[in-house]
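Deliverable D2.4 — example input (structure tokens):
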């Protein structure tokens, strides 16, 4: 079965401010078919937008039992799944190892329930905001990408994945713009 590849990103303009605008974007690719989705919220955080991009992507799938690859520049998101933080969180009543409540619990719980509907879901970390016009940077970050995700990806795969992440970032910023314009009365 062909996998569904999902490229996600979240953004937040004024992330540490009380009043801000956040956006999320995603591209879902299955064979020759692709779909772009995005949205935004007022008064949010970058991490919430990263999680929302994955959640909304999974919610938009029409079938269960799929093989899915999710690519994100959020180490927070990717490491939760590759290092299985969520297992300990659940065991500890949704508390961190420092006995503090897990932030964004409701989003994590929804993502986990959506993931559990599928055969296999893999998470891969991508370098965000990368300049693909600099060969030295491409080589440096391709090596880092392989250290994060394994050596099964080619350099061409890496460049394609990075381009898709850059597009997801643009979609997230479109989500910010949409929310900002709504709040201006535009």
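Example output (designed residues):
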């Amino acid at each position: 079965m062909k996998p569904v590849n999902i490229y996600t990103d979240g953004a937040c303009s004024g992330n540490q401010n009380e009043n801000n605008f956040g956006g999320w974007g995603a591209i879902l690719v299955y064979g020759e078919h692709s779909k772009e989705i995005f949205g935004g919220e007022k008064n949010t955080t970058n991490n919430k937008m990263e999680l929302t991009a994955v959640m909304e992507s999974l919610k938009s799938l029409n079938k269960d039992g799929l093989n899915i690859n999710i690519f994100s520049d959020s180490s927070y998101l990717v490491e939760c799944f590759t290092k299985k933080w969520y297992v300990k969180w659940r065991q500890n009543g949704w508390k961190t190892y420092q006995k503090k409540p897990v932030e964004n619990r409701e989003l994590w719980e929804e993502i986990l329930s959506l993931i559990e509907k599928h055969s296999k879901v893999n998470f891969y970390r991508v370098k965000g905001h990368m300049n693909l016009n600099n060969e030295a940077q491409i080589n440096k970050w391709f090596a880092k990408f392989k250290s994060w995700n394994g050596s099964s990806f080619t350099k061409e795969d890496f460049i394609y994945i990075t381009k898709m992440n850059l597009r997801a970032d643009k979609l997230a910023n479109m989500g910010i713009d949409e929310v900002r314009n709504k709040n201006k009365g535009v």
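The CA atoms of residues 133 and 179 lie 31 Å apart.
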